[in-house]
């Protein structure tokens, strides 16, 4: 998707054989991506070091049936390989804790969207908004079959009713299920939380840019598990107000 203001092209659509994150749309998703990059950096160092040590051992002692223990042991070596993993763990844990606790924060949200998982579709309730009939705004979201997909819609990931949400707004997502366990997962927003029958879980997001963000149920919930895509369309506040007035 292209942002018309900055002329920046964002990767918001899942791609075949994709091996990295989609472009972030929230601070939480950005923190998750940065945490991943930090951990991968240290894992490369650890993997390289362990591989080198293993190779050196095989080359040095592989053909030597007898080795003298006092020539291959040393206090300095023992101290190094004890302290080094501890230091790496600290560097990995620090950003992980920050991201984890930030994603759990739901303080004074501006609005709430309730997502209810069914076999096999989603229902969204906007409990803060009432329509002309005096009822809470509610939409049902079904996958668009391949034989009815139109130009601009994505294969097996688009829906008939998208979840419309305003940008720059603290939104609380309350997630539950009606039958079996589902999972509400939208990678670009950093939201991933189980939808459990008889229980409500919550997460939050402040979407920082306009766009259409694709997700999927990530809990095996039955034969049509793959037919439960999630599409969040982030719009400006005036556009969101116009959308609610049409419901």
Average pLDDT number:
84
Uncertain runs with pLDDT below 50, 5 residues or more?
1-5
What is the name of the CATH architecture of the largest domain? Sandwich
**What is the first-to-last residue Cα distance?**
26 Å
Q: Helical amount among residues, as a percent range? A: 25-40%
Q: What overall form do the CA principal axes indicate?
A: elongated
Domain Cytochrome oxidase subunit II copper A binding: 108-246
Protein name: Cytochrome c oxidase subunit 2
GO molecular function, one term: copper ion binding
InterPro entries: CcO_II, CcO_II-like_C, CcO_II_C, Copper_CuA, Cupredoxin, Cyt_c_oxidase_su2, Cyt_c_oxidase_su2_TM_dom, Cyt_c_oxidase_su2_TM_sf
General description of the model:
The protein is α+β, with helices and mostly antiparallel strands. It folds into two domains: 27-104; 111-246, Immunoglobulin-like, CATH 2.60.40.420. 32% of the residues lie in helices and 28% in strands. It is built from four helices and twelve strands; from the N terminus they run ββαααββββββββββα. The chain has helices at residues 27-61, 69-72, 75-104, 237-246, and strands spanning 2-3, 8-9, 111-118, 121-130, 136-141, 163-166, 170-177, 182-186, 191-195, 201-206, 211-216, 229-235. The strands form four sheets. The chain has a five-stranded mixed sheet, with no helix packed on it. A three-stranded mixed sheet has the order 6-12-11. A hairpin with a 5-residue loop joins strand 4 (121-130) and strand 5. The model is unreliable at 1-5 (pLDDT under 50).
